[in-house]
Design brief:
Layout: E1 3-7, H1 10-16, E2 25-29, E3 43-50, E4 53-60, E5 64-71, E6 76-80, E7 83-85, E8 88-90, E9 94-99, E10 102-110, H2 113-138
Parallel strand pairs: 1-2
Antiparallel strand pairs: 3-4, 4-10, 5-9, 6-7, 6-10, 8-9
Length: about 140
């Protein structure tokens, strides 16, 4: 996508949505004005996807915005060739990343901070419980 309108927050984005043509333009929240070029021939293809990842091959004739229609959430991270890139809330509910012209491989992964901490605490607790059970059985 090469047409972008910027909104300072979600409320402004919601106000702008009725006035845009979704085939040509997107509303991006909280981003500084990215210089996008008008281009044609851009395309994107989802190569792999699962519950916590999406891999997209994008070919852009000019710098643009790659928009995924999946729900925006702070737990998502985006990487382009192993370099983390910023994800923006697009059209109030979706997520997107700005990309330079060319062929790009973008990987989105879902790894919220609370989930990782919860997993660590779960396995620590399960390990401690297992040790207590083994200790009790030896007596």
């Amino acid at each position: 996508m090469h047409g972008v309108t910027y909104a300072s927050d979600n409320r402004e984005a919601l106000d702008l949505l009725p006035r845009i043509d979704f085939k040509k333009e997107a509303v991006v929240e909280g981003a500084s004005n990215q210089a996008l070029e008008q281009g044609q021939g851009s395309r994107a293809e989802v190569l792999r996807s699962g519950a916590n990842y999406v891999e997209v091959k994008a070919v852009l004739g000019a710098s643009g915005l790659l928009v995924l229609s999946d729900t925006y959430h702070h737990g998502w991270r985006a990487f382009e060739r192993d370099t983390q890139i910023e994800i923006h809330r697009v059209n109030a509910t979706m997520r997107g990343v700005f990309l330079p012209a060319g062929e790009r491989l973008v990987t989105f992964t879902y790894s919220p901070k609370g989930f990782t901490a919860g997993c660590v605490l779960f396995f620590l607790g399960a390990g401690a419980a297992a040790l207590l059970i083994l200790r009790k059985e030896r007596r």
